[in-house]
């Protein structure tokens, strides 16, 4: 049974009582023990894989409808990335579920112990609109693999995708345990009011605060995958081949993935005064090469965000910094790849996450000054740096803090299941992907086992000095 199937996304669609009934059913299912076994988890992951394979075209279609994503981009960033993640979970599920033997200190002899991962219970996954399938189902893979019942609330700002998930997920997955509930902030607030065993949230820091406040009421653990404002440091690379490759990777991360509406996309560049003119010319070249046909670029999600981005550009001092692009098409919700040189640092474009195709380039006297620049700002989701200088790389690792550091490439970390994905400080907390997702949705429960063969009386009163010596 799909929830709210056939109705429009909206706040008024399902009353709080309906939500409670659905969540109660998921809890009854979890309490029955159905979701805990290996076979159930495997069958659900296989079903998810079937959904990804059989409904691939439908997914590419709704992603085009909601965000104008080109089918190749949509496959690469969402359907393909998810397929890889489900494959990986299926391959490793048995290993992840197995108790982990641990050694104990002498004081515990002859106790033995292991860490047994147990599911948390009924979990809530709330996702954002920019990768509306990827960021909905990626956490669900972890929730299912770890043996939980899970409720997904996709973003109402990607309505075609939200509807797709509400209709298709219940056709493939066990709808007594896995449910999709559509709706906006009001529905989200009603959901947040209920008791959960975990809330996994992807979205803005502003709503992240609301999630944490609601979770505090029930002492519910949360993972917050929040905003980016990810910088890329661009050192003056010597070889023209390396330069070309590097600007291609910058362009891919700034414009080629949801038109800059990506949490791990590049927000702004840091470069030396001296190198900036070269970099700007290189960027103009790559924009022409990659994006001459605007059909290969996504669209801004809605009028509100389109206007927000236009307002950033309309500020007089920001407009004065324009060196490339800047044209907008309100009908198509399109803003062309745009470069700004040294917009004022106290303007919104540099104090808030841009989340769009505007690329500020901030110049510094020396590239090493970028470290102080970053240290003076909130911790980003990712710091990118293009450089050959090994000492500088080490300083970036040692002297800055971020969810991830990536040298000489962009975005690829999202596809690497063996490294954790997540933020720090203002960019969030809690990590997922691969085994980290499984752990995120598990309680790693230590289980100790001892026998009755021996007893040490020094553990118990009556106390005496001799016992202190032992
Ligand atoms: P958002 O915070 O507006 O919405 C996220 C979710 O919260 C949606 O499901 C929405 O319905 C719900 N929501 C909205 N208002 C609410 C309210 N008042 N009370 C309760 N729930 C509410 O975020 P968004 O606009 O969908 O996404 C953009 C933000 O997400 C950006 O900041 C971006 O960087 C961040 N993001 C982070 C990651 C990551 O992995 N770290 C990934 C994608 C997006």
UniProtKB/TrEMBL annotation:
Catalytic activity reported: an aldehyde + NAD(+) + H2O = a carboxylate + NADH + 2 H(+)
Question: Which GO molecular function annotations are given, in alphabetical order?
Answer: aldehyde dehydrogenase (NAD+) activity
Q: Name one GO cellular component term.
A: cytoplasm
**GO BP term, pick one:** aldehyde metabolic process
Q: Name one Pfam family in it.
A: Aldedh
* Residue ranges constituting the Aldehyde dehydrogenase domain according to the UniProt record: 20-446
InterPro entries reported for this sequence: Ald_DH/histidinol_DH (IPR016161), Ald_DH_C (IPR016163), Ald_DH_N (IPR016162), Aldehyde_DH_dom (IPR015590), Aldehyde_DH_NAD(P) (IPR012394)
What keywords tag this UniProt record?
NAD, Oxidoreductase
Q: Where is the active site?
A: 225, 263
Give the residue range of the signal peptide: none
Q: Which family does it belong to?
A: Belongs to the aldehyde dehydrogenase family.
Q: Which PANTHER family match?
A: ALDEHYDE DEHYDROGENASE (PTHR43570), ALDEHYDE DEHYDROGENASE FAMILY 3 MEMBER F1 (PTHR43570:SF17)
Q: What is this protein called?
A: Aldehyde dehydrogenase
UniProt organism field:
Rhynchospora pubera
